[in-house]
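Homework-ish question, so no full write-ups if that breaks the rules, but can someone show me the predicted structure for this set?
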Amino acid sequence: MPVEAINQSANSSAKTTEAASCVASLCADGVSLAFGGQQVLKNIDLEVRSGQIAHLRGGNGSGKTTLLNILSGFLKPDSGQIKLVIDNQPIDVLSHAPATLARLGLARLWQDTRLFASMTVLENVLAASPRPLGISPVMSLLAYSRVQKQEREFKHQAMTLLDMLGMADRAESTGERLSGGQAKRVAIARMLQTGAEILLLDEPLAGLDKESAVRLVEDLNLLADDTRKAMLIVEHNHDAISPVCDISYTLENGFLRYEEHEGQ
Amino acid sequence: MNYLFHLLVYFEIYAIVALSLNLLIGYGGLLQIAHAAYYGVGAYAATLLWLNAGLGFFPGLLAGAATAALLSLLVSLPAWRFKGDYFVMISIAVQTLLYTVMYNWTSVTNGAFGISGIPRPELFGYNFVTTGSVSVLFAGIALVLAFILAILKWSPFGRALQAMRDDELAARSIGIPVEWLKLQAFAIASAMVGVAGGMYASYISYIDATSFSLDESILMLSMVIIGGTGNVRGPLVGAAVLILLPELLRFLALPDAVAANVRLLAYGLLLIIMMHVRPQGLAGTYRYQ
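A: Not a homework solution, just the prediction itself:
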């Protein structure tokens, strides 16, 4: 997989230099976007690094999902730069397709989960496996036994993730038969199966009851601590998510306000 | 008995056609309308190589498959960005364009007169002259191709295709390269239907462009929709039903002038009934939307 390094200019900000020394980070610099004559995002600077959980908050229609779409490569901003750093390797987000970014280590969770409806829970998670042998049909035929061996390893990994998220007993159910909360957990397992270092989560707690929300937040916190993954979480349930967040960003009138949480 | 072998040969050819189309429609959610055109490209390429270059049966079939696959790649490259209705319109345009080329490129295809005298299959000095022997050979080819498609369905490639079909945006977000996937699916399906085209030419011993028209594409589509998509069984059932249907209509002793129209009417009616009563087809698992 080609990793295209971006040229870091001599006068790059201290923030970027600091990010490059991390294992993984995502850094937006001066991102702006207008929709239908209205400036939705105004000169946004944002950064999230390995092991950090950042909370992105704001009212309905404030542009949170739009910002996630830009950060994950699904939408191009009018101006600004977005840099992804994986294993100290800088990557220009705006010059890569979302699928390439996901394979490089930037995955996202959708607000409406977007599970593959005709597939089982396990197949949904397996579909996201990072494949060193690729998904080429020629490889599937010529290197059948190698592909099958790899498949068994991915299946084990997928079951471990489903177990962690309390969904192992539903592995053979189809996505259509899950409740909203269960679908959300499967979608999180699917996102984690990609092996991505940077996770963008759009309202992971929506539709979950209080107990499930608390458990999921604990899981996410453990994940950030244990695996040093970086997370940017859009979430309206501030009470549930705030205790585990290292930093908060508030999006208001197109501007982003930054706040560091003490003691994190 | 010869009549039954003849039906069996047709079933084997159309089984490959329907299975390859199912790869696109059933697994990939890509509504291909130009399948008959690639069937024709395979038939013409193999025929020309058998007659003019003296190629053997299997090398000719493979060359026909490669030509159809390459052409589909050329066409798919500019079309891969289109989805839904626009993709279907492009597909119809490709069908019409390729048919027009086959019909009018008289120096190569002999235009409306077609090409006759196409040799029956020959393998290691054995001539497959009888319909029964052809049915045995074609059964072997159909089984090999069905086996390859079954492996692909359960492979990471097949799963990625199904993910793309269910939700293209979600597929992109987990790292599935959907554009590349579409190209590969089109190339494989076109290569397989190209093989079927070569088999058809070799069996009938004569081809002209009218065998590869939009009507033929709709027949192929009907096989997949009526039989069912998303598994190997559905397209096989569809191929069997639509091969047997015209034979059953023969018993109505309709005048030749109206028989063809009645057949098309029957296909249309069947399609409408299936879409309302059983959208997943007679034996399919996926409900095409």
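Now go work out the reasoning yourself. Hint: Residues 144-164 of chain A form the longest helix (21 residues).
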